Amino acid sequence: SIDQVVMDEFHYFGDASRGAAWEIPLWRLSGTAFLLMSGTLGANPALYAAIQAHTGRRLSVVSSEKRPVPLVFSYSCKSVRATIESLTQSDRYPIYAVHFSQRESLLTARSFLGNPPFEMSVDKRSA
User: Are 40 and 9 in contact (CB under 8 A)?
Assistant: First the structure.
């Protein structure tokens, strides 16, 4: 028996290609308490009602307009390495780098092995 489940990135619920990873546990584990998190999912009373009706549990919504980590995005023609070096040198992190393919992502990750574009020491960046 599963008593509790924590799910992040819940905004993918209902997504045609990835939503099943969130939907199946939610609908199959009706006696389970869920903590569903999303930094981008807005108010959705119909979803709240469906979850509450299905689980038979009271639903509480905790929300805030303030983001603990500001969301800033940009597109760069520089290499990923140069972009990460520039961002970390100007104290702009954490960094979430998006690639256009898994192959590109893997190649970038491999290029960082043994020669990362940022300091690997424990400092204020990991605080």
Answer: no
* Nearest-angstrom CA–CA distance, 125 and 89: 11
Question: CA 45 to CA 121: how far, in whole Å?
Answer: 45
18 alpha carbon, distance to own chain's centre: 13
Quick one: tokens of 30?
């009706």
pLDDT tens by residue, the chain, 127 residues:
888 999 998 888 888 888 888 888 888 887 788 899 988 888 889 989 988 888 788 889 998 888 777 778 888 889 889 999 998 888 887 888 888 899 999 999 999 888 888 776 555 544 4
Whose tokens are 């299905």? That residue is 54
DSSP string, 76-124: -SS-HHHHHHHHHHTT--S-----SSHHHHHHHHHHHTTS-SS--S-SG
